[in-house]
Design a protein that fits this description.
Layout: H1 13-21, H2 23-27, E1 53-62, H3 73-82, E2 87-93, H4 97-100, E3 105-107, E4 110-120, E5 123-128, H5 141-150, E6 154-157, E7 177-182, H6 183-188, H7 192-201, H8 204-211, H9 216-229, E8 233-237, E9 240-241, E10 243-245, E11 248-250, H10 253-259, E12 261-266, H11 273-282, E13 285-288, E14 299-303, E15 308-311, E16 315-317, E17 323-338, E18 341-355, E19 360-368, E20 371-376, E21 379-382
Parallel strand pairs: 1-2, 1-9, 2-4, 6-7, 7-8, 16-21
Antiparallel strand pairs: 1-12, 3-4, 4-5, 5-6, 10-11, 12-13, 13-20, 14-15, 14-17, 17-18, 17-19, 19-20, 19-21
Length: about 425
């Protein structure tokens, strides 16, 4: 999404005139003040080393190769390098043209990978590590997912609760994960009127900070899909469509790339496409809103005090002395979830250790200044005598997978509409 696109509705002429008259206020949207890097935790030395490097980047980015974006490929490269990102995953609408044009690879210090966003009958689907175009008009949603897998790729359900194009086919299986946070649709799309009003008077940072909120519906859907399918990897996506009007930039990459980033944990000091995709498949990832504070250095481990037994995305057998260790790069409040329900909280601090006494799916969320900051992928604690589960997603959906995930928010979520 841009703040308004051909897909989601163009701004009216009246709004464009107002924005033009408010040039000074709008221009501020492109100027974010520099923010400090996260502080190093005092207790860092006492946290066990998991042997993985933390690589940070952005996922779900559109350029002029998509019909509804004005930002150029060169702009993505410039901003990614300026913000010291390690990778960016570009996903143009229904095309691999940038891949055919030889755009994938290293550009400065950033690894740029090319996927695509497929408009299927059941909703939008992000496909990575694919090399052949997919006829999404001829195929069903499940067949699109199967074709991505046939090519050795991996895929994610995109913006499942976007008003203009919700995800409707909850019967599918074989997907790697879903966007548990899509900043364009979970935040900006819900605040169009506020966006217009704020651009007249407010600088960028307070406005964007004011609209950041926990993505209740996508998180509830994520937890439910994990219950149905086993491992489902959650990512945070920018869905960036830099848009230009009257000489101004709206939803610029400079801003969007700070609003949500996905971190990948890779057991190497060398970044390669294969290692990016492996980390995504395994759920060795977390995502964070880094408008004010960077999240690099966060860790969420299962250990027994002497050795690391697993990290985000891993299955770990329940055993005596098992605990979860959460380490933060800056003080924050933490909430631990088990099977989608909050079970414990910790006041602002750097490190939290939580004993584990029963199997379940455990993940954590961190907040700063009352705003969401970090979202981990789960650690899956299994019964001690349970046989290891296969790494791949199931090939057939469970019997109850035909209905959308239920609402766990205070208000009911209506059935996903076409």
């Amino acid at each position: 999404m841009t703040l308004w696109t051909m897909d989601y509705g163009l701004w009216t002429g009246t709004v464009l005139i107002v924005l033009f008259l408010s040039l000074a206020g709008c221009a501020a949207l492109t100027r974010l003040r520099a923010h400090p890097r996260g502080l190093i935790a005092e207790e860092e030395a006492s946290v066990l080393d998991d042997g993985h490097e933390d690589y940070v980047g952005v996922i779900h980015v559109h350029t002029t190769a998509s019909h509804d974006a004005h930002g150029r490929f060169e702009d993505v490269v410039r901003v990614a390098n300026a913000q010291r990102l390690d990778f960016a995953l570009i996903t143009e609408h229904n095309t691999l043209k940038p891949l055919r044009d030889g755009r994938q690879g290293w550009h400065g210090a950033a690894l740029i990978l090319i996927g695509m966003e497929l408009s299927t009958r059941g909703g939008h689907y992000l496909a990575f590590n694919v090399t052949e175009e997919i006829d999404r008009n001829r195929l069903t949603t499940q067949q699109v997912i199967d074709e991505v897998n046939r090519q050795g790729g991996l895929g994610f359900i995109a913006h499942p609760y976007f008003k203009a194009r919700r995800w409707t086919d909850w019967s599918v299986a074989g997907f790697t994960g879903m966007e548990a946070y899509n900043v364009a649709h979970d935040t900006l799309d819900e605040n169009r009127l506020r966006l217009i009003l704020w651009t007249l008077t407010a600088p960028a940072e307070p406005f964007y900070f004011s609209i950041i909120d926990r993505p209740y519906d996508p998180l509830a859907a994520w937890d439910e899909l994990i219950r149905r399918h086993g491992r489902v990897v959650g990512i945070g996506s920018t869905d960036a469509h830099e848009f230009h009007v009257l000489g101004l930039k709206f939803a610029p990459y400079d801003v969007m790339f700070q609003l949500v980033r996905t971190h990948l944990l890779i057991p190497s000091d060398e970044l390669t496409p294969e290692r990016v995709y492996d980390a995504l498949r395994q759920g060795h990832a977390y995502f964070a809103i880094e408008l004010l504070t960077e999240a690099k250095g966060f860790s969420f481990l299962a250990d027994n005090g002497a050795q690391v037994l697993g990290l985000m995305g891993d299955r770990v057998a329940l055993a005596p002395g098992l605990r979860l260790t959460i380490s933060l790069p800056a003080p924050a409040s933490l909430t631990a979830f088990k099977d989608g329900r909050p079970i414990a909280t910790s006041a602002a601090g750097h490190t939290w250790r939580l004993p584990v006494t029963e199997p379940g799916v455990y993940r954590v969320e961190a907040t700063r200044q009352g705003k969401p900051w970090i979202f981990s992928n789960p650690i899956y604690i299994t019964p001690p005598d349970e046989a290891p589960a296969p790494e791949d997603q199931p090939t057939a959906p469970p019997s109850d997978a035909g209905s959308p995930p239920p609402a766990t928010t205070p208000t009911d979520i209506p059935p996903a509409a076409p």
